[in-house]
Amino acid sequence: MELNSIHSFFHQAYMPHGHCYLWQPHLLWINVISDLLIATSYFSIPIAIMIFAKQRPEVGRHWLFILFSSFILLCGITHLIGIYTVWHGAYGIHGISKALTASVSMVTAVYLFRLIPSAVAIPTPNQFFGVKDKLSKLTSEQKQLKSLLSEHKTTEFMLNSLPVCTLLLDKSNNIIKCNPQLLNELGYKNATPMLGTSLSEHIQLDDPFCKLSTVLQESKQKKSKPIEQLCQIISENGVAIPMEMRLVTSSFEGQQFTLVVFNNLSSFKQLKQELDASHQRIERAINATEDGVWEWDIKNDNVIYSPTLMKMIGKEHLKNPTYLDWYEHIHPEYREIVENAIKEHFNTQEKLQVEYLGRNYENKFAWFLAVGNSQFDKDGSACIMSGALRYIQSNKQLESQVVEKTNILNSLFNGTSQAIWLLKVEPEADFTFLQFNQAACERVNISPKDIIHKRLSELNENVISPFIVQKIKSNYSLCCERKQPIEYVEMLPNNNEKRWYQTTLYPLLDKYNNVEKIVGTAIDITARKFTEKELEQNRAFLEQVINSAVCGLYLYDLNKKRNIRINQRYSAILGYNINDLRGLNMFELIHPDDEAKMSVHLQDILNSQNQDLLAIEYRIKHKSGGWVCCNAVETVVTRTEDNTPTVLLGTFVDINNN
């Protein structure tokens, strides 16, 4: 090892410090343990300083705390290295730690001496707490002042926000304060034009016998008691605004002030005018209506009747009518009914509505309707009752006529042998039976409860077969589609018997021109159908007999001068069918030599009596061109009302062979 070199400075081959203690345990360990405890204490002190600095952030970053912490920390490190040198000769490292400690210690000492004037200026605890007490008192006073200022501002805001006009007068009755609401009402932009002026310059009392000075003097005499007056206050543009004025005089800090409060009555006056106009309109409406209006103060037994009501009961001459004046006009037999209705109204609190007979303006008994309602107190007792009285004599007569006609219609509806029913058209091509009379029920052998208020689609097989339902549904739908009456003949079975009906459907249209209901009627024509069938059978039989006859047969129209009906034998003899004869005059077919004879014959027919048979022989042209000699017998079968023949029946045979 080279002495006095860097290597020798950090070399640890020197004699350990323990040799100085001769390695005596009691000397060695007392020094080691003491250095260890000192280092531990030195390390804890910076920690305490750091904790203090963290809890006092306003002083925690001060350089004094940093220097002290560094100095004490280096002291602790130096003691730890001193323990290390007991067993190892690392005196270079030990020296470096001491040098660092010395440097930081010197800087700390210099800095501390520089802080002595500031430290001396720090107040003592007594001084600090004295200043603190003064500061606390000042803070408390400041809070009280702020609170009073806040209350003052709140009070001023509240007064300025009130929807009333206020001003403050001094003892000379001059204006010293006024709120924004008053300025706004009077049209002033600020209070300058009003401040310092006398109240009398702005106010005019409504009472001509009262002076403002007297009112102000009275207010000062009656301290804290409000004085009220109606007045008019002059706005900036000279308009007088109706106001209600209240004055209260009071003392504040030895000075007398008068507070004046104004309430704008413009809206109230306008409302009063509107109420008066509304009252007049209501009064005109009451007088114009045919109903009489009344009000009854039940507790005080006072009544108010409209002129119309008094005229209705024939007592318009009474000036101060009472409840008995109305009660006495009621027919004696109906007074108990009316009384019971009123009692029932009081008990149930439901609307009063009672019809009765009473004397009218002609002093004759007629029908009246009394309608009314009451106001009840918290105990449920009626206080005020008001309503209307209506003259319903004509309504009663009309109602009686309607009932009579309704009974007649019901009798016709249920008593007629004609089936009648009423349908309501439903969505999706369905129909509801609203009415179904007895005849209709008998026609289809069904009970009214099984079909009334039932839809067509709801009828099961036990009521009407699906085939019949579909058939009548198509007819109802056709009526809705055409929107006009339709008539048809249908067959509906009844107890396994075929019954024929002539049915007519009448559509009822709504305001949109859509069918909403259908009235149906049906007449049983089964007998007529059987008669028609028999007639058809007889006609067919007669036709067969006529066509089977050995002679030709024809019907001759005397006006048209041609045959209008022939049998098959006629066609067989002459070769013509009925279509061939429609365009021919019979005289065109008669032989020229027989025309005169035929004319005489026709004249004889015209002069003949009923059922006279007239015979004639003549020649008639065959369709093929030849002549057929006929022996004919003719008679008149149709005559007019004046007995003039129109149609004759003729038979003939071919006598060419004869």
UniProtKB/TrEMBL annotation:
<dbReference type="InterPro" id="IPR058544">
    <property type="entry name" value="ETR1_N"/>
</dbReference>
<dbReference type="InterPro" id="IPR052162">
    <property type="entry name" value="Sensor_kinase/Photoreceptor"/>
</dbReference>
<feature type="domain" description="PAC">
    <location>
        <begin position="484"/>
        <end position="537"/>
    </location>
</feature>
<dbReference type="InterPro" id="IPR001610">
    <property type="entry name" value="PAC"/>
</dbReference>
<feature type="transmembrane region" description="Helical">
    <location>
        <begin position="64"/>
        <end position="87"/>
    </location>
</feature>
<feature type="domain" description="PAS">
    <location>
        <begin position="538"/>
        <end position="609"/>
    </location>
</feature>
<keyword id="KW-1133">Transmembrane helix</keyword>
<dbReference type="InterPro" id="IPR013655">
    <property type="entry name" value="PAS_fold_3"/>
</dbReference>
<dbReference type="InterPro" id="IPR000700">
    <property type="entry name" value="PAS-assoc_C"/>
</dbReference>
<keyword id="KW-0808">Transferase</keyword>
<dbReference type="Pfam" id="PF25487">
    <property type="entry name" value="ETR1_N"/>
</dbReference>
<dbReference type="Pfam" id="PF13426">
    <property type="entry name" value="PAS_9"/>
</dbReference>
<feature type="transmembrane region" description="Helical">
    <location>
        <begin position="28"/>
        <end position="52"/>
    </location>
</feature>
<protein>
    <recommendedName>
        <fullName>histidine kinase</fullName>
        <ecNumber>2.7.13.3</ecNumber>
    </recommendedName>
</protein>
<dbReference type="InterPro" id="IPR000014">
    <property type="entry name" value="PAS"/>
</dbReference>
<dbReference type="InterPro" id="IPR013656">
    <property type="entry name" value="PAS_4"/>
</dbReference>
<keyword id="KW-0418">Kinase</keyword>
<dbReference type="InterPro" id="IPR035965">
    <property type="entry name" value="PAS-like_dom_sf"/>
</dbReference>
<keyword id="KW-0812">Transmembrane</keyword>
<dbReference type="Pfam" id="PF08448">
    <property type="entry name" value="PAS_4"/>
</dbReference>
<dbReference type="GO" id="GO:0004673">
    <property type="term" value="F:protein histidine kinase activity"/>
</dbReference>
<dbReference type="Pfam" id="PF08447">
    <property type="entry name" value="PAS_3"/>
</dbReference>
<feature type="domain" description="PAS">
    <location>
        <begin position="278"/>
        <end position="349"/>
    </location>
</feature>
<keyword id="KW-0597">Phosphoprotein</keyword>
<keyword id="KW-0472">Membrane</keyword>
